[in-house]
Amino acid sequence: xxxxxxxxxxxxxxxxxxxxxxxxxxxxxxxxxxxxxxxxxxxxxxxxxxxxxxxxxxxxxxxxxxxxxxxxxxxxxxxxxxxxxxxxxxxxxxxxxxxxxxxxxxxxxxxxxxxxxxxxxxxxxx
Length: 126
What we know:
Elements: E1 15-20, E2 24-29, H1 30-40, E3 47-50, H2 55-74, H3 97-113, E4 118-122
Antiparallel strand pairs: 1-2, 1-4, 3-4
């Protein structure tokens, strides 16, 4: 049975390290790592592994989530008359899922090519 992940506000600001057996490592803050692990269907435990045979599905899931996020962002929200001409009050564009997922997808791709595996490790469950 999968253990539920903590809510975003409950997560301490800690780092999660993804280490490839073949190509290096990548660090992410826990909220971003949690989002990535949930997309690929993994538990947000302090330690875990994505085996070589699981990498293609993990890559496909991340790419599908990125494509869905881009489609949702492509349709701009309706603007009211009050918003027109008010460029000073516009919010900055947030970092999207694609920008956050791309490094992990690349790490997975390199690891898959060499038939390796990816471990992740954090200070505690997140």
